[in-house]
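Continuing the batch. This is chain 6 of the set; chains 1 through 5 are on the previous pages. Same settings as before, nothing changed between runs. Recording input and output for traceability.
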Amino acid sequence: MKVLNKHTDYAVRALIGLGMKPGTRMSAKKLSEAQGIPYQFLRRILQELIKSGLVNSKEGAGGGVMLAVDPGSIGVRDVIEIFQGRVQVSECMFRKQLCSNRANCVLRHEIMRIEKMVSEEFSKVTIGKLIADLKMLEQASAARSMQTQQEQTKE
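Output for chain 6:
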């Protein structure tokens, strides 16, 4: 079972990339290279993010894309809903028709409870939080690298 599809994953990565450079416009090409997202795929994703109001764009010299809102206000659930619809574990469908047991299904009620919990948790995870986590990882990695270099020069 996939909770996040490739569109959502790439959209989150693109939003993180833009959020790492607040107030700065970035070309889709540079963002594509920085985040390892295929360029044509990213362009389609950016169109959806622009349409949803999370990103704005400007054409021409000095143009590019940038976040239109504070990264702390963008929940991963928001991104999932843009690209996949609401968080669902099951569709209660069989061969594209509603299940005949849907009204009395005890499993469906448990699935709905789980979906609600997952949705709430995804709304707590924001692009701003992911950026802060990434910055902490980068700082920790830089500190380890510096410590390794110091240990090597002592030898």
